Amino acid sequence: MSTSPAHPGSPRSPAGSESDAAVRLVALTHAYPDFFGRRRRITLRGIDLEVAPGTVLGLAGPNGSGKSTLLRVLCGLEPHRTGSLFVLGGHPLDRAVRSAIGWLPEDSPFPPELTARATLDLAGALQGLRGKELAREVDRLLSLVGLAERARSRLGGYSRGMLRRFGLAQAWIARPKLLLLDEPTAGLDAQGFEVLDAVLAEARSNGTTVVLASHLLTDLLGQCDELCVLLDGRIAERGAPRAIVGAGTLLDVYRRHARAAGGAGSSA
Fold first, then answer.
1. Domain range 23-267, CATH class
2. Smallest Cα–Cα separation from 30: which of 50, 57, 56, 7?
3. At how many degrees (to 10) do helices 160-172 and 190-206 cross?
4. Smallest Cα–Cα separation from 201: which of 185, 179, 230?
5. Which helix (H) or strand (E) holds 71?
6. In b/e form, how buried is each residue of 99-124, taking b as 16+ CB within 10 angstroms?
7. Could you read off the pLDDT of 233-262 as tens digits, one per residue?
């Protein structure tokens, strides 16, 4: 999905700042304003995070923990409040950076009146593809996600599973350097799980950095190199997925941190 700048007044990283990391956040905060523009609900609290190029990072956390907001900040759809944000050596609102980001939102906000091919043509053009190269990439992706026979059908007639597969195609068009996936298995049909595996395999082969938010432990254990647990807008834990989860569940992880926070509060 195109990540056109929605908030041109958002804080930007200092000019000339560079990092070898594909993503680097320093003391980053975010808050949603109320109707009058006042800060109302803090959603990200002092996030410090570095993601090396080519890493597949999983984001886990209960509803409201800040996963989706963090992804929206990374792709430039939400402004951060304070702190520093570096994505692919720049800022998500920089044109060169924006064209190197692929984004799959949790919902499927695609224009229902357009066909799959027309929408991918537009998405590819926004990513810098032209002419025969664009046509080849659109054909390849429609085949990859199993929608070649429905290429000229309007998206409004697609099932939810088909829309999720289409969403993976539009996020992966032009093989971006950073791929952001918000609940990629939500609403997938049986074929869609194979499509997701294929896209992530291509991403690894391409050296693409992937940040994947999911509620499903199978997604995080099977696909991710590292796991980052978000609780109440803070990074509670980061490490190898199996080392964090062990033989338990994500709920066990959340409860462990809740007990630790409660114990720290009572002893303070």
1. alpha beta
2. 7
3. 10
4. 179
5. helix 67-74
6. bbbbbbbbebebeeeebbbbbbbbbb
7. 999 999 999 999 998 999 999 999 988 877
